[in-house]
Amino acid sequence: MVCLALIGRGRPAPPFTVRRHRLGCATREDNVISRQWRGLAHPNRAQDYVDHLRTVTFPALRKIHGFVDASILSRPLGAGVEFLIVTRWDSMDAIAKFAGADPEAAVISTSAADMFIEYDRRVRHFEVV
Question: The whole model's pTM is what?
Answer without folding.
Answer: 0.76
